[in-house]
Amino acid sequence: MYLLRRAWANLKNEILVLPSRVLVALWVLGLALLPVVWPDPYILRIVTMTCLFAIFAASWDLLAGFAGQVSFGHALNFGTGAYASALLAQNLGLSPWITVWVGALVALVIGLATGWLCLRLRGSYLSLATLALPIIVIGVLFAFPNFSGGELGISGLRRLTTSPVGNYAIAAIAMLVSVFAMWLIADSKFGLVLHAIRDDEVAARASGINTTRYKLAVFMLSALFAGVSGALYSHFLRVAGPSTLEVALSFQAVIWGIFGGAATIYGPVAAVFLLYPFTEWLGNFERLSELRLLIFAVTVLVILLFMPRGMVSWVRDKIESVCPRCKARNGAWRRECRLCGAGLHGAFAPARRAP
Amino acid sequence: MLRTLLSVMAVLSALATTAHAQSSIKIAILGPMAFVQGENHWAGAEMARDEINRAGGINMGGRRLTVELVKVDTNELQSVPDATNAIERAITRDRADFLMGGFRSEAVLAMQEVAMDNKKIFLGAGASLTKLGANVEANYDRYKYWFRISPTKDTDLIRTVFTILGSVAAQIRTDLKKEVPKVAILAEKAAWTEGLVPAVQKTLPAMKLEIAGLWQPSDRATDVTAELSAIERSGADIVFTLLSGPVGIVVGRQMGERNMKAVAFGINVEAQKDEFWSATAGKGQFVSTLDTFAEVELTPKMTPFVRAFKERFKKSPAYNAATYDGIYILKEAIEKTGTMNADQLVPFLEKMDFVGAAFYTTFDKRHDLVWAPGKTAGIAVQWQDGKKVPFWPPQIKGMQPFRMPR
């Protein structure tokens, strides 16, 4: 009874006080209930793919949004995870439950190498250098077709589980854990340093921060999560091919990140959950299916025109406000801060009664 | 009262569902519908559907079933996940009974997995990758529902190219009285040619052909003057092409502009299209390539099909239009076995001997077409005075002579 009362208190004081937290709670609840209320294999497949791409998009945000290391070749980490896991499973006969982790670790090492190579580069030079890396890897894969499967990749991989609900559950849990971990990282002291590096790297270094170490660390972490999504993707589709390294996939991550709102983690996740099923839904209509890329592009452009900081950031600003004194977030309907009692929306705070 | 009403409604809806399920056979046509390959998948299937439905549909154990097509845009040229989502939708949402189509090998490999998960018969009509059939041999119980109706597998395509090259070389030996003709290999720089080029270099000397050299422009090159002038200087009699990109048009046009004495033969995907002549500004004379359909009697059904296709769609069919045959293959199998049960249809399809518009279809143990010139190896065509003229296999009625530029 005590635990129940405490859970309710937590729910009431920590989640129900903010609309964004309520939305997140509903979203998690929806994910948990989906296989029960709507066990359609097609829907489960779409949401499974959405979950995997959500990890990928959030990992790009960790690197580009928080640390300002805007990568145009993030598919390198996704593809590395996919290929490493596939090659290990295929050639050594290892269980995908092992190879997924190893694939992610290989991606982490590649992330370290990428970070090391790009340490001296900034801005558009960094973006262009990262853009070239997956293209080089594709060239290497094509040069050794007996090893990599060439332009067709590696197929016939074992799935982690055979049932659609099982695959969905793995993807959803992996996504929730990864996104929560990335959010914790971004919200920690480490994340604060990343912010500092993004805003002014010279000033951060002058303040005694070893920016090299932090940048390498974020390249590795971002690659690790992208590698997890790539490895899970390859075992879900049972194919790891050059499409996992394509430039188009790298740009998808950028689009999701900017559309949802950079430097938020939850923004790119929300963007994937909106845009991926949306384009798939368009495919259901014969007349629209051939135009879906165009509709997708126009939608993104229009949203960014009116919501330049990203859709999720825009929505959050509409439903919540920030206290000018303590910076805590409050529901947009509140006139005074729920924590410090300061007046919101320019109103004067009423005098607080002494306890 | 309410309970009775609900029961009646439930029974009626169940009957309605059953009646609907039995009135038609749903076939999902999978392809990149915004591209020429998907257009041909759909066009071939539409023709077969209309013909069959006009003739009373498919007779399954005494019941007449109409053919219902589901157009499924796989978007596979741009996204492999889109292709797998599309096939899942066709199976679980659209409730397709059979699947047909596919083009990009990487995407078809992934789609094959979804189809096999659901134990659905999938007739491939676009991807030539050997691995697709090898899967059947390696794990029969899982992959037995896959059959390839067009084209032949990639290794057989190469056998066809060498066979035709031998025929062209024989003509050169006779016409030019040259015992060992020279061959220039012009292969675009692409992944698919990387394995082929060494094979070509190894095979040509065995065919008593001298290799004049290897030239590899980009698949999107807009100028191949340097390559062609080097080929001219080498004294090549044949330009053996392995081209899939727009460079095929450039090669055709510039060979014509230079009045080259060598003749181009091999794979040139652009030269298979009706628009090739106008794209080369009428300079694509004598360019030749592999193809699938022409107004020849490779099979008794080919000429009527090609004429009807041209009349309806105002263009020639490409090899993906073999979905036309695919639907007739299913019709015959369903009518002979009296069932739509995949496990019962597979043994019938394995033993089937079917005469279609494109091929004489028989399947081997990998469920690939059994390769045979004049039956499943397709045809070769040459551009002559603005027309695509079929010239190989020469014994087939309707074939015309292969012409040399000099």
Name some characteristics of this structure:
heterodimer; A: 355 residues; mainly alpha; two-stranded antiparallel sheet; 4 strands; 71% helix; B: 406 residues; Rossmann fold; 2 domains; 6-stranded mixed sheet; 4-stranded parallel sheet; 20% strand
Q: Would you give an account of this structure?
A:
Chain A has 355 residues and is mostly helical. Chain A folds into 2 domains: 1-37, no CATH class; 44-322, ABC transporter involved in vitamin B12 uptake, BtuC. Chain A has 16 helices and 4 strands. Chain A has helices at residues 2-15, 19-37, 41-66, 75-92, 96-117, 123-143, 145-148, 164-187, 189-199, 201-206, 211-237, 247-260, 266-282, 286-289, 292-306, 311-319; strands at residues 154-155, 239-240, 320-322, 329-331. In chain A, strands 1-2 form a two-stranded antiparallel sheet. In chain A, helix 3 (41-66) crosses helix 12 (247-260) and helix 13 runs antiparallel to helix 15 (292-306). By secondary structure, chain B is α/β, with parallel strands linked by helices. Chain B folds into 2 domains: 20-151 and 298-361, 3-Layer(aba) Sandwich (Rossmann fold), CATH 3.40.50; 156-291 and 378-392, Rossmann fold (3-Layer(aba) Sandwich), CATH 3.40.50. Helices cover 45% and strands 20% of the residues of chain B. Chain B has helices at residues 2-23, 36-54, 80-93, 105-117, 130-138, 140-143, 154-176, 191-194, 196-206, 225-234, 247-257, 276-279, 302-313, 323-337, 342-351; strands at residues 24-31, 58-60, 63-73, 98-101, 121-125, 146-150, 182-187, 210-215, 238-243, 263-268, 288-291, 354-355, 360-361, 379-384, 387-392. Chain B has a 6-stranded mixed sheet, with helices on both faces. In chain B, strands 8-7-9-10 form a 4-stranded parallel sheet, with helices on both faces. A 3-stranded antiparallel sheet of chain B has the order 11-14-15, covered by helices on one side. In chain B, helix 2 (36-54) packs parallel to helix 14 (323-337), helix 3 runs parallel beside helix 4 (105-117) and helix 14 crosses helix 15 (342-351). The radius of gyration of chain B is 23 Å and the shape is elongated. In chain B, 50% of the residues are buried.
